[in-house]
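@here heads up, posting the sequence + SMILES for the pyridoxal-5'-phosphate run so it's all in one place. Ping me if the SMILES looks off, I pulled it from an old spreadsheet.
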Amino acid sequence: MVQHRCPDTRWSWVEINKGALRRNTRAFKSLLEPGVRMMAVVKADAYGHGAVECAKVMHAAGADQFAVATVAEGLALREAGIEWPILILSEPPMECVQTLVEHDIMPSVYTQEFALAYGECAAAFGKVGKYHLALETGMTRIGVDWRHAVEFRRGIDFHRGLACAGTFTHFATADVPGDWTFALQYRRFTEAVSAMREASIDCGLVHCDNTPATILYPETHLDMCRVGVGLYGMQPAESTRPRISLEPVMSVRARVTRVVYPAVGTGVSYGQTYSVGRQNTQIATIPVGYADGLSRSLSDKMDVLVHGTRCKQVGHICMDQCMFAVNVDPRRAVRPMDEVSYGDLVTVMGADGEERITAEELADIRETINYEVTCNFGARLEKVYV
Ligand SMILES: *Cc1c(COP(=O)(O)O)cnc(C)c1O
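bot reply: prediction finished. Complex structure tokens:
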């Protein structure tokens, strides 16, 4: 019997399996040739899994560097005592250059104005501001146009306060094997890097691979891979599933806070979209709602696991709570459920016995991707590391 640690203050929590995180990190590390570095992407609080705790586990399992999306995310890691290299995956506002310099957090760079302001600030502190140059190769999101890389670097390289620690781009279609856009982006990227090298420009660590590219295209690993979603045990696409085995890291659990046997016809929740259809139906409540990342669009469409069995979630999901139905009618053709009691363990995402609800299952119902599902659960629920 698995023991479930539960927070004292609320009967719902995110459970993070550190062993699975460690094994996933090692699995990615083993895809890389010796000397190729791994940058673990811990943006959005490690896709909802808790950036500080995850970074420590990942580092112990082979991650060399860390990537975040915002200055605040970088600061949170530094304030927790994490001293490994940290890269922000876009160029932050110029107003924060001093924070970056003081805390040794590397920005991505793609405007001359930002680069020079950052260099000035670093020089004023007697430091050198390390940065990674972002190149636009076809994602149409951020970066210096790949055709202008040499020109851009010439426009900033005179500054003694700047040092290029890396050059990168990001793929739009790495999850589609043999994709034409992927090949085009990779060619543009490597051409830009070659042009800079021919001009004797130091590119630092050259990197372009996200999770799917790391799995599907070993020839594009270059100096470093930026691995995100896969470390958390999620497949970025069906195409990568046969290539690497990963274990989900996040589960979402709750305990039943109330159970009733309403009369037939009794409505449940706002708008009363569900009403009890037969006798001997239990309606149980758990303290997980859409403010906890259980999207309201899942209402009346998702299942939860109780005693290793699927039960239908019923009624609109509220901000902080939701309900599910348990049919305990002994005359039902299918196996009747055991009665559910106050305090019973409920699995909203994760495994219970033989059954499992995956982030992909919830994502499909919501018409989104697994990435968004775990990010959302990370927002308010307390995290328990097991
Ligand atoms: C989010 C992100 C990654 C990681 O992507 P995954 O698909 O989660 O591996 C890598 N690089 C950049 C620039 C990103 O924004």
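MO: The first strand starts at residue 12 and ends at 16.
MO: One more: The mean pLDDT is 96.
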